[in-house]
């Protein structure tokens, strides 16, 4: 029986965590019979996760990403397990792992947006870490037998960076709406507190460009509130300080890690979701809002044009005035869009099925 490993150490992290939660949910749902899956999890995460399938085995891998232990003890654990195939789901991986592996590259933001503002480290340490990051990513791209990207935009960016030689082994598999969204009812109690609001969901890294959105919101009618939903981390605290210093801070609400029932309420009742990012690999919150039929107002960047065509309001993310104008214009026109074809096309269940096909193809050739 073939043994396939999946690196799930970021299971409860934003973004990649959603990807992992859905990949493993649908993998477990399919109850694999012909291969056994080793799921590598942090110790505290492993205690919270259970699988129904007997062929999905939890393995404790308490080595943090971007760490020396990842390059040593995690490497030794993988080699000891003698896998037929390993799936690295993040660009941080043991660079001396010489056995067969596939890699998911979610975006190229760390490569394209080099800025010390994106780190809590001092400038020298940041530059050093960024130098090693580029080496790790290059090694992963060159050594992977198959590369998975969430959009053609990311695929094309990788080809631009690493050359046409990787085109044949790079495959786009679209993501989808999280299964947790499907099964959760909205918190209707919030209806008494939140009305007439626009919504941003995501983290607050510099490339997310949320400061410009805050500045732009000042020109929107005072009737409306901007709700920012994200994790509780260093960058959230920084955006919190920015809100307090803003003239329009009293119209901006920052919520940290709300329960899914709250998030569903915000998705279902927002005027529109607004996403000013300078770089994305996919943009899951936009799809989740679209699932509830809510309009999208977002950056005019390649990835959003690929995913949403002309079915969203696009603005120049580097231009505060353009962001303001598009918000004001949306309020005046109340543009409506059709998302049915996108909801059918973008699916985590389909993503899992396509990923399993890759596992089978690669292991059959071994």
Structure description:
α1 crosses α15 (348-364) and α8 crosses α13. The model has no long low-confidence stretch (mean pLDDT 94). The chain has helices spanning 16-30, 43-46, 68-81, 109-112, 123-143, 152-162, 179-182, 210-217, 234-245, 260-269, 284-291, 302-308, 320-333, 340-345, 348-364; strands spanning 2-7, 35-41, 56-60, 85-88, 101-104, 146-149, 170-172, 197-201, 225-230, 252-256, 273-275, 296-299, 313-315. The radius of gyration is 21 Å and the shape is globular. It folds into 2 domains: 2-176 and 347-364, Rossmann fold (3-Layer(aba) Sandwich); 184-345, Glycogen Phosphorylase B (Rossmann fold), CATH 3.40.50.2000. Strands 3-2-1-4-5-6-7 form a 7-stranded parallel beta sheet, sandwiched between helices. Strands 8-9-10 form a 3-stranded parallel beta sheet, with helices on both faces. α11 (284-291) links the parallel β11 and β12 (296-299). Helix content is 42%, strand content 16%. By secondary structure, the chain is of the alpha/beta class. The two termini are 13 Å apart.
- The proportion of residues forming helix, as a percent range, comes to 40-55%
Distance between the termini: 13 Å
CATH superfamily of the largest domain: Glycogen Phosphorylase B
The largest sheet has its strands arranged as: 3-2-1-4-5-6-7
Report the total helices. 15
**What structural class should be given to the helix and strand makeup?**
alpha/beta
Average pLDDT, all residues: 94
Q: Report the CATH topology name of the largest domain.
A: Rossmann fold
- The CATH architecture name of the largest domain reads 3-Layer(aba) Sandwich
Give the strand content: 15-25%
Secondary-structure element order, as H and E?
EHEHEHEEHHEHEHEHEHEHEHEHEHHH
Reported for the largest beta sheet, the result is: 7 strands, parallel
Radius of gyration: 21 Å
User: What is the number of domains?
Assistant: 2
């Amino acid at each position: 029986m073939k043994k396939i490993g999946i690196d799930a150490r970021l299971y409860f992290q934003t973004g990649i965590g959603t990807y992992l939660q859905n990949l493993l949910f649908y993998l477990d749902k399919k109850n694999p019979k012909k291969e056994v899956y080793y799921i590598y999890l942090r110790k505290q995460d492993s205690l919270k996760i259970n699988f129904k399938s007997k062929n999905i085995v939890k393995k404790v891998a308490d080595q943090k990403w971007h760490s020396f232990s990842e390059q040593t003890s995690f490497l030794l654990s993988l080699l000891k397990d003698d896998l037929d195939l390993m799936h690295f789901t993040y660009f941080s991986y043991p660079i001396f792992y010489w056995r067969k592996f596939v890699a998911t590259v979610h975006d190229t933001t760390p490569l394209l947006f080099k800025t010390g503002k994106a780190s809590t480290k001092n400038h020298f340490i940041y530059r050093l870490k960024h130098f090693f990051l580029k080496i790790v990513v290059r090694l992963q791209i060159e050594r992977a037998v198959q590369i998975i990207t969430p959009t053609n935009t990311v695929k094309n960016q990788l080809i631009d960076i690493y050359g046409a030689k990787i085109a044949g082994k790079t495959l786009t598999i679209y993501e989808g709406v999280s299964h947790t969204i499907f099964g959760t009812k909205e918190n209707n109690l919030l209806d008494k507190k939140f009305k007439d609001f626009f919504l941003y969901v995501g983290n607050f890294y510099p490339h997310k460009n949320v400061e410009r959105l805050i500045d732009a919101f000042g020109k929107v009618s005072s009737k409306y509130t901007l709700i920012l939903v994200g994790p509780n981390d260093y960058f959230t605290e920084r955006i919190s300080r920015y809100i307090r210093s803003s003239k329009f801070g009293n119209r901006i609400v920052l919520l940290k890690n709300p329960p899914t029932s709250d998030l569903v309420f915000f998705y279902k009742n927002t005027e529109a979701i607004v996403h000013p990012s300078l770089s994305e690999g996919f943009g899951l919150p936009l799809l989740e809002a679209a699932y509830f039929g809510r309009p999208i107002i977002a950056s005019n960047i390649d990835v959003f044009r690929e995913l949403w065509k002309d079915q969203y309001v696009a603005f120049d993310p580097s231009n505060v005035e353009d962001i303001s104008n598009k918000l004001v214009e949306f309020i005046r026109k109340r543009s409506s869009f059709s998302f049915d074809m996108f909801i059918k096309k973008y699916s985590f269940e389909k993503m899992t099925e396509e990923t399993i096909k890759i596992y089978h193809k690669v292991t059959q050739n071994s």
